[in-house]
Design brief:
The protein has about 325 residues and is mostly beta strands. The protein is built from one helix and 23 strands. It is elongated.
Amino acid sequence: ADYPDSISHVAVDEFHVDLEGTRWSLAEPIDFSVGTGHFSLADMRLQSDQGAMSLNGLYERDEVVAGSLQLESFDLALLNPFLDSDHQLAGRMTADVVVGGEPASPQVNLTADLVQAPFPLADIDSMHVTAGFSEGTVDFQELDLRTNFGRATGEGTVSAPGAGVEDFWARSDLDLDLAIVDGDWSFLEQFALPALDRLAGRFDGNLRVAGSVTEPLIRGHVHSSPFHIHWLHLDELESEVFVDHESMVLGDLRGHKEDLAMTGRIEIPLELDLMSEPVSPLDGPFFMQLDLPAGSNLAPLSVATNAFVTTSGTGRAQVIVSGPLEHPQYQ
């Protein structure tokens, strides 16, 4: 006989699995049911020396999906056998994931904490995130990331309605507000950016990230103390920032070297999308203008820029450097 709508009920008294040398076991017996277009699981808890996992769920085709997953100090290294990646995961995660709604348009809410997780670009000391997903939009209510390069906090949305999992990021529009606290410019030294060679110093900043992943628009304000790059050395710099997919601009720049104050503007060629590493093309246009007010002590100018061997006296000055990034000319 054929019973296409029948539901099977299954009871599991014991369950053990060894994963990466760690034994996971059911904390207590469980019951679940499965059938055509149906699945339900009562509370299940797996535990080990490397953390614990609790979950439950309900699925009725075309009607409802609901469930939750809790991770307790879960060792991310246990996922490495299932990932096709040269980078080996590490760190511990505690998370609470809740799913609800219709199967065609589920809603997901996440609260998660990750600690001691090294990644290729930065070592995460800790990360806290609270976010929700609905109708193709990830809404970050809270993000707090602490790494060896400083701290970043933020909120906002990443949205790609209609996109699948594989192309969600590539098709996403961005609307994010980020704050950087005690950031380290040396983070950018990991990329092939000759325009930012020998960049160093610590900075705070507030940034708004808009546009799309393929053509991002970043606007904000930064304060750096000190600020060093191969052609400019300041004790302190404050500037408005504008970045798009082809340039980075430090406008309304205000800074000083010792008692020498200056204002100006810097424009750097930059090929930027958030799918790959940024590049500063050597044949791209570079521009820097620094203005020194009348009566300035010019002695620190020789150590603030690479334009002069020695400087002395007082006066007013303007330094302009422009041309292809590879060989700009002083004016």
